[in-house]
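Problem statement: downstream parser choked on a complex file, so we are re-checking the raw output for the pyridoxal-5'-phosphate run. The parser issue turned out to be on our end (a line-ending mismatch), but while we're here, posting the original submission so the record is complete.
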Amino acid sequence: MSKTIFELSTKGRKGYTLPANDVDIPLDEIIPAQYKRESKARLPEVSELDVMRHFITLSHKNHFIEKGLYPLGSCTMKYNPKIHEVIARYSCFANAHPYQPEETMQGALSVMWELQKDLSEISGMAQVTLQPVAGAQGEFTGIKIIEAYHKAKGNTHKDTIIVPDSAHGTNPATCSLVGYKVKELKSDANGRCDIEHLKTLVDENTAGFMLTNPSTLGLFETQVEEISRIFHDVDALIYMDGANLNALLGIVQPGKTGFDVIHFNLHKTFSTPHGGGGPGAGPVGVVEKLVPYLPVPIVSKNDSGYYLDYGHEDTSIGKVHTFYGNFAVLLRAYVYIKMLGAKGLRRASENAIINANYLMARLKDYYHIKHPEYCMHEFVADSSWQKKANGVNTLDIAKRLLDKGFHAPTVYFPLIIPEAMMIEPTETESLDSLNAFADAMIEIAQESKENPELLHEAPLTTPVRRVDDVLAVKKLDPIFPIKN
Ligand SMILES: *Cc1c(COP(=O)(O)O)cnc(C)c1O
């Protein structure tokens, strides 16, 4: 364990200089005694270099994409180009105020207008709201829009949304939050929607369908047109969870295949650093007949320029966030789209798919893969072979990967694959880094035969060893005991 900043403190050392007072400020008169500390604040006394070394050392204990591959399935931990950060910090954007008069924020409005337009084209939808600030909030917005559509049509009996068992966990949660009942649709033997089961679930009370596509199995749902017909026949709407759009850019326009609503995860597909709980953006796209229900405002354009359009306020579901959402994230996505262009976006998706398939091909002899056919941008392997033969489970493998310098895949998800390891390498990894990861996974498969004890003990080299999950959940103390 490295020293805390207080342990580094050496009396008299300092890393700051303050300008001399040019006026004498009578602090004792200005600040009443009850607001003053009784003793001097305990601050570490350290030099600038001490502080820099301390924080750089701490940052290295973490894992981040600039340090190594981050194959966290469904999360699209791709490299985020630094040009986005430079532009997001331009003072003209960073210092803009949401209450500024429209004529002084034409540049910012044009960014949002263009982004609405580009996302509409990418998704094949008629219009997009940029307001939601997370994928899950995009889902909420989208399902509220579906609810508003049914209310307007007097479809008051519609109270159920159908969600496949291969959906992202947020999907059923979103439906419940809006007030819908959820019926679970089974996957068939190919990991796709079981159409026969679907037919038994859909009836007049069905308000909609929520499909994660590609699914959490990394598989593309091939029967969307038929699914769309089944739902539209009972005036139900279909929603695509587009958080995994990284597989589809320039290849599929969901709005053209029958989907009525989609959300995007700009912080995944369109490249904003995420994973540390930082700001995100979950815009929602809709077909023409749902445009009146979008949150207000959207950005429109007329002869005198760009403006905030409240025109559909009476039918809108209202606002889901203050002002326009997370503008700096929108800006990053705008730069990403404009820099790659249509061809570049398609290449990004193609490479994401190729990289995932390459890894799957390298690992398939060492790990069980329930759906070994071609995948999209991710695939699900599992540790059932290792568990059966040597008692090594997915948690052991995930922890051992940390020792080898990689972030673990998403584990124990999707729930329909026991001991799941959901692997998403993304397009920004080179062949060399894919090979390094595959080699590490293969070494671990070998270790599981030769030295299963080692894997139960892993990680051995990280600053924090394996934590006691059970105790950590029961004893919510920030400094819970750590094994070893
Ligand atoms: C990440 C993800 C979400 C949720 O997005 P957040 O921005 O974390 O709220 C929803 N669905 C899928 C498929 C995802 O991968």
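For whoever reads this later: The mean pLDDT is 94.
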